[in-house]
UniProtKB/TrEMBL annotation:
This is Cupin type-2 domain-containing protein. CDD domains: cupin_MJ1618. It comes from the Bacteria. Pfam families: Cupin_2. InterPro entries: Cupin_2, PKS_Associated_Protein, RmlC-like_jellyroll, RmlC_Cupin_sf. Residues 45-111 form the Cupin type-2 domain. SUPFAM superfamilies: RmlC-like cupins (SSF51182).
Length: 124
């Protein structure tokens, strides 16, 4: 039998606070959704004035900023981000994100191979 299409809504996914402190909803994860993917996809946000904890993933990660503006710190180097910004984070790169705006800083996270709790270390 071939794989079937999968259609869902963001609002139907359970929101939780991730280990780094951002609010997150998993959109596609091969262990939790009926998809055969080599990555996981999540929607996340940081409230105005907030930030994530410094953390490291064993997997590579791509962030795509949907709304807001902030500062992404990768291995100690600060980068301004805003809606439309995207960046690649290699495995074992120290990272944290701060919301510098007055609205939510929303972003998509693609983690490859798929995110696992064992692959993430909070460093602060």
């Amino acid at each position: 039998m071939s794989e079937q299409p999968y259609v869902a809504q963001l609002r139907d996914q359970t929101e939780f606070v991730a280990g780094d402190g951002c609010h997150l909803r998993e959109l596609l994860h091969p262990e939790r959704h009926p998809v055969a993917l080599g990555y996981s996809l999540a929607h996340a946000y940081v409230e105005a004035g907030g930030r994530t904890a410094d953390h490291v993933l064993e997997q590579s990660e791509v962030y795509y900023i949907i709304a807001g503006r902030g500062t992404m710190v990768l291995d100690g180097q600060a980068h301004a981000v805003e809606a439309g910004s995207y960046y690649y984070i290699p495995p074992r790169c120290s990272q944290w994100l701060r919301n510098d705006g007055e609205q939510r800083l929303e972003f998509l996270c693609i983690v490859e191979p798929p995110w696992t709790a064992a692959g993430e270390t909070i460093t602060e």
